Amino acid sequence: MEITWLGHSCFRLRVDELSLITDPFPDSIGIRMGNVSAIAVTVSNGHPNHSYWKGVDGTDKVLEGPGEYELSGIYVRGIMTPRNESDPLDQRNTAYVVEMEGLSVCHLGDIKHPLTARQADQLKPVDILFLPVGSGESTLELSQTIQLMHTLSPKLIFPMHYNLPGLQSELGDLEPFVKEMALQDVQTIPKMNVTASSLPAEPRVVILQAQGVQTEAQ
């Protein structure tokens, strides 16, 4: 599986000719995804910065809430996670687990409150975790983020949803997470290829370079 981060909460998972996109965003966010295509898109919540599926070519399926889905050998399950009880349903968050090529990939979306034990069990097992680390109004505090990561026990952790140059969003920076995790000699890579047999024995944080580029207005 090839994993590419386009920026914000948007990743592309690709196995051979099959691609899935998570939480696509519009150019108005300050960066753009570029020309991307996928057979399916997952949307964690209705905010435009997480739900711009029209920007993805070739999409046969848009997954927008809890449930179990299957297409072309890709299995997806969505679990509703806590947000403010006063939020309309279309603003609630869905965490997804995508099963492709023998790997279990969890995308937490805009998780705003800690998971219950039952919700964590519904997401497990998790091989790869896309973790929002830019603490702010729509995400967990850093200490809660770290605790959630330990609860889900992934082998690979990909930070997402943090401040980037040009991004028009009030998100925290990556550095507090890096410091809290005591990461040394942090290096970024453009993408990563993962197989079930190549998963590390101990948890590893991987920092990807956002492949989305700043819009001309920036």
Protein architecture, described:
With 218 residues, this protein is mainly β. It has one domain (2-214): Ribonuclease Z/Hydroxyacylglutathione hydrolase-like (Metallo-beta-lactamase, Chain A, 4-Layer Sandwich). It has three helices and 19 strands. It has helices at residues 117-123, 142-152, 175-180, and strands at 2-7, 10-15, 18-22, 31-32, 36-37, 40-42, 56-57, 61-63, 67-71, 74-81, 93-100, 103-107, 128-132, 156-160, 188-189, 191-193, 204-205, 207-208, 213-214. The chain has a seven-stranded mixed sheet with strand order 9-10-11-12-13-14-17, with helices on one face. Strands 8-6-3-2-1-16 form a six-stranded mixed sheet, with no helix packed on it. The chain has a two-stranded antiparallel ribbon with strand order 4-19. It is globular and about 40 Å long. It starts with a strand and ends with a strand.
Q: Layout of helices and strands, plus pairs?
A:
Layout: E1 2-7, E2 10-15, E3 18-22, E4 31-32, E5 36-37, E6 40-42, E7 56-57, E8 61-63, E9 67-71, E10 74-81, E11 93-100, E12 103-107, H1 117-123, E13 128-132, H2 142-152, E14 156-160, H3 175-180, E15 188-189, E16 191-193, E17 204-205, E18 207-208, E19 213-214
Parallel strand pairs: 3-6, 5-7, 6-8, 12-13, 13-14, 14-17, 15-18
Antiparallel strand pairs: 1-2, 1-16, 2-3, 4-19, 9-10, 10-11, 11-12
